[in-house]
Amino acid sequence: MIIASEVTKAYGETCVVDGVTLSLPKGGVTSIVGPNGAGKSTLLSMISRLMAMDKGSVTVDGLDVSKTPGDVLARRLSILRQDNHMTARLTVRDLVSFGRYPYSKGRLTADDKAHIERSLRYLDLEALSERFLDELSGGQRQRAFVAMVLCQDTDYVLLDEPLNNLDMKHAMGMMKLLRQAANDLGKTVVLVLHDINFASWYSDNIVAMKHGKVAAQGPVAEMIRPEVLSDIYEMDISVHTIGGQLISVYYG
Amino acid sequence: MSRRAFGILIPEALGPVRMLILAFVATLVLAVVSLFVGVSDVTLATLVSGGLDGRAMEVLLISRIPRTLAVVLAGSALAISGLVMQIIVRNRFVEPSTAGTMESAALGFLVVTIFAPGWPLMAKMVVSALFALAGTALFLRILRYVPLRDILLVPLVGIMLGGVIGAVTTFFGYRFELLASLLAWEVGDFSGVLRGRFELLWFGLAGTILAYISADRLTVAGMGEDFTTNLGVNYKAVMTLGLVIVSLVSAVVLVTVGSIPFLGLIVPNVVSLLIGDNMRRTVPWVAIGGAGFVLACDILGRVIRYPYEIPISVVVGTIGSFIFLYMLLRSKRGAANG
Prior knowledge:
The structure holds two protein chains of two kinds. By secondary structure, chain A is of the alpha/beta class. Helices cover 35% and strands 29% of the residues of chain A. In chain A, the strands form three sheets. Chain A has a six-stranded mixed β-sheet, with helices on both faces. In chain A, strands 2-1-4-5 form a four-stranded antiparallel β-sheet, covered by helices on one side. A two-stranded antiparallel sheet of chain A has the order 11-12. In chain B, 71% of the residues lie in helices and 2% in strands. Chain B has helices at residues 16-35, 44-50, 55-89, 101-115, 121-143, 153-175, 179-186, 202-213, 215-221, 225-230, 235-256, 263-275, 279-303, 312-336; strands spanning 2-5, 8-11. In chain B, β1 and β2 form a beta hairpin. At the A-B interface, α2 and β6 of A face α9 and α10 of B.
């Protein structure tokens, strides 16, 4: 379980994350949604110790993220952010192998190699494994990074807007895959998402943020309701049941 | 299967290890050639006829071997420092002479020459390295305020910073009548290398070994701070290590043979195109490539106007700027094609 208490981050006068207290259950897929500037990515960065918090604390299965040694945490929790403006010319296999770094520090064991092969297979990257990252399409590259994170084999997998730059087909493929990782491998997946319909279709739980605070949190059925969503996004949103799933309509 | 890179078809059947051995042997051949190029008559025949005390043997031991070693050590170390610099700045177009590092090292050397002229070269080198460290740290600091997405802006900032530091150095060099020495440091030249005046360059080899030992961590750091932290690696520690390698190598090369521009840019970039950026694989290639390239340029500089000599920085600078231009145009075209 991830427990955040009174987590705060301010830039000058602006409080981006304002005393958030939150607990994320172990297992399943949890999506963090909300309008731009709600503090979703900042919160995720603090949970995963990429960013120092001004106040508050975060624990992952009892480990305080700001005090636990980096490599210990790296075997428990992985985080993927969208910060790939310069992609080094690594092959897909090299990149995925780095997922084992917290365990082997660069000297790959047979066990590490098995993990690497499994991750490549899981993301259908075997044919691309010797290609350089800068020779791949955006979607393929995204898959390679996710393969690396899965290869890290952590209980918690955090992803910041993993659907960015993906077309509908690849976005759907990515969400299916994360859903599978939660179901088959028992991972706890936490995502920041923009599209509430993706969140509705593939998650178990949804956390909605607004103005640096948690506006609402709960299972999908409780969260994907017109009154909840309209309040969070400040627009008219209707919810329809299509194919047994709750779909929001907010056009026009 | 084969891979085409940089216009050259590389047969993959050769295997990476065999290719590396091939490159090593080619560099070794160049090194042997380098031993026998020069005004003094040093050939196998004169070596044998002169015996151990002959003139040819003397020239070989005092001048030719030190010179060749200096070329190999300086070439590989500078290429490695360029590679490390590109990793820690995350920009392909930086190297010690486009980041203010070399200029800072020169300033440090000037300061210690003015205030403590009697210090041994080793101590002067340390002061120079500390200045290089400070100058490069300043460069990284300035870069925080520059949009890093603009790939060409980064080296421009470095060149400007180097210009400012260089101006300060020139001013004091002029005031203290050390302009001639200053020129000697800034224009790399191997003609003055003799036994007893290049041994500091072994520190350059230490830098290369350090880079190889920490290759994985440096590669990880090259993927960015978040990526590094996620894998449980201390980003700041890796950056500091990289800075130390770059500063040490720059200072060592500066105080022994002088700065050689473009070298740290060309060799790592060509290697990156050919075999990628995983430092565990690229460090040996960059080290051998740097040594081989400088050896070739040094031999060229010695035969082109024989019996006179063209300084290495001029030869490398000329050939290097053409290769650099080619790479720039190539990357533009690549970007345009998406």
